[in-house]
Design a protein that fits this description.
The complex is a heterodimer of chains A (140) and B (382). With 140 residues, chain A is α/β, with parallel strands linked by helices. In chain A, 42% of the residues lie in helices and 16% in strands. Chain A is built from 5 helices and 4 strands. In chain A, strand 1, helix 1 and strand 2 form a beta-alpha-beta unit. In chain A, helix 1 packs across helix 4. The radius of gyration of chain A is 15 Å and the shape is globular. By secondary structure, chain B is an alpha/beta fold. Helix content of chain B is 44%, strand content 8%. A 4-stranded parallel beta sheet of chain B has the order 5-4-6-7, with helices on both faces. In chain B, helix 1 runs antiparallel to helix 7, helix 9 runs antiparallel to helix 10 and helix 10 packs across helix 18. Chain B is globular. Classes of the chains: A alpha/beta (140), B alpha/beta (382). Chains A and B meet through helix 2 and helix 3 of A and helix 8 and helix 9 of B.
């Protein structure tokens, strides 16, 4: 039987984390191919429904990443994202999802290495946790 | 199910085209594009595509005000529910409020393999048992809590208060750790498949728990169990709304209250009122608290006006207008507090107060409180 390969959906802000992922690529930093990156204009535009839909669609983990605080391309996107993330974490917890399935990171443009490390860590954790309970039907 | 079946089942063919439905409809009073009469006429003429593709199909509140007036006894709410099921089969959906977060959570809950942590809020002072005869149906409040925090609503307070009341009357209820949403919103938005899954999961859990009686603090759950579940699953329990339970406890003298000086008015939720005919018990409960004065709004009991959104679809400017009208009506009674017995009514009214907009509108600020919170605050501490 082949090893379980988790599926991660990453919402990456256009100005920082998406560029960081790009840097990781152009610098030829290896990281697991389990992540599907969705570019959003700002981490502050990520709504709880984006995260929930990802799980509905069979994601095993969701990463929401964007600029550092004070570093937002706009004004206060990261603050908005933090507030949203707190909410969605509470919903996910009530649904019985492990905390490790949801991750919030601040990764700036130059931090391609950090992006790769975060994805690696997440993949490791998710492999230990196994498939998301909402994915069972798809796997079976 | 075809359009023809729907017409037959809901007795739409009896329509006299008198238009009373459109004149009483709270949506039609504000939204010129919506008319129950025109919907019914289109159905009778067989214009299925026009109906299914009509955005306004999802505007109906299914509040039942039209049904009350209908001389031919057309079941318009059921007609809408079935038409929505037809539409959702064709891939048409309503516009979900709150980006569809609530609906997504409900769909996720329909997954049989999950283990929820939905009872984290229980504290030692709330006494519950793991096996017992009385089951308290928590409903969606643990999920509503993070979503609607912004408007100052504390949905969990409702569940906590309900358990406090049950405890005071000598009952330690059992709660299901993996209770699912009753599926009300899925049913009324036409997603019958998900509704069936939820109903089956819930029915199996209830059967296993050995409960003899289920108490609800949410009229939607109560209605769904009473009216809609029997068509899908078998629930062998006595069902009771918390207001009915409290009224009974007051009659048996098992609850006593301290004085609470307040002038209040009561909003009949459509599910509890028009759908199930429970008008007297909530009023009996409010009046039983010494010091409380209950004043009625201009539209009360059967005539009561809906809070403006149902099943979290098509919440728009017209919903807001209905809410403002209702809040002004509540304020006009001179009451300090608007009491409701549905968590969603509270959510919708408080949302209207928070999102007033920039322009200076009428003053609609009034305290909104759930009936169980009111009763719990009046309980004599033992």
């Amino acid at each position: 039987m082949s090893e379980f390969e988790p599926r991660i959906i990453a919402f990456a802000c256009n100005w920082c984390t998406y560029a960081a992922a790009d840097i990781a690529g152009t610098s030829r930093i290896h990281y697991p191919p389990n992540v599907r990156i969705i570019r959003v204009m700002c981490s502050g535009m990520v709504d709880p429904i984006y995260v929930l839909k990802a799980f509905e669609g069979g994601a095993d983990g969701v990463l929401v990443a964007g600029c550092h605080h004070q570093d937002c391309h706009y004004l206060n996107g990261p603050d908005k994202c933090d507030a949203m993330f707190e909410k969605v974490k509470r919903m996910a917890h009530a649904l019985g999802l492990e905390d490790e399935r949801l991750r919030r990171e601040l990764i700036s443009t130059s931090e391609g290495v950090i992006f790769a490390r975060v994805v690696e860590e997440m993949v490791d954790q998710l492999k230990k946790l196994g498939p998301s309970p909402f994915r069972k039907e798809l796997v079976a | 199910m075809t359009l023809e079946d729907i017409v037959r089942e809901t007795k739409t063919y009896d329509c006299l085209e008198c238009g009373k439905c459109s004149s009483i409809c709270p949506i039609a009073r504000y939204n010129p594009a919506y008319s129950p009469r025109a919907m019914v006429e289109n159905a009778l003429l067989g214009f299925e595509d026009d109906l299914v593709g009509n955005r306004e199909l999802f505007s109906c509140l299914t509040c039942g005000a039209c049904q009350l007036r209908c001389a031919s006894d057309v079941d318009y709410p059921l007609f809408i529910q079935k038409m929505r099921a037809l539409a959702s089969g064709a891939g048409v959906e309503g516009e979900c409020a709150h980006s569809g977060t609530v609906h997504s959570l409900i769909r996720l809950m329909s997954n049989p393999g999950i283990k929820q942590n939905r009872l984290d809020w229980l504290s030692d002072e709330l006494r519950t048992v793991s096996q017992g005869e009385v089951l308290f149906w928590v409903g969606c409040t643990p999920y509503f809590d993070p979503i609607f925090e912004y408007s100052g609503v504390q949905p969990l307070e409702i569940s906590k208060s309900a358990i406090k009341i049950l405890n005071s009357s000598g009952i330690e209820p059992m709660l299901l750790p993996d209770e699912r949403c009753c599926g009300h919103d899925m049913f009324w938005t036409g997603n019958v498949e998900t509704f069936r899954k939820l109903a089956e999961l819930n029915a199996a859990m209830i059967k296993e728990s050995g409960a003899k009686k289920i108490v609800f603090a949410c009229p939607e759950g109560y209605r769904t169990f009473k009216e809609d579940y029997p068509q899908f699953v078998k629930i062998d329990c006595e069902l009771q709304h918390i207001t009915e339970f409290i009224a009974e406890a007051i009659r048996n003298n098992s609850l006593s209250f301290k004085e609470l000086n307040k002038k209040v008015t009561y909003q009949d939720p459509c599910r509890l009122g028009r759908h199930l005919g429970v008008y007297d018990e909530p009023r009996e409960v409010i009046k039983a608290i010494p010091g409380i004065e209950l004043v009625e709004m201009a539209h009360n009991r059967e005539e009561s006006i809906c809070c403006g959104t149902s099943a979290f679809t098509n919440c728009d400017m017209y919903s807001k207008m209905i809410r403002v009208e209702r809040l002004l009506e509540a304020k006009a009674t001179g009451a300090d507090c608007l009491i409701t017995s549905c968590p969603k009514c509270q959510i919708h009214f408080k949302c209207a107060m928070v999102n007033k907009g920039e322009e200076k509108g009428p003053d609609i600020e009034i305290e909104v409180m759930d009936i169980v919170s009111l009763v719990a605050s009046a309980l004599n501490s033992k």
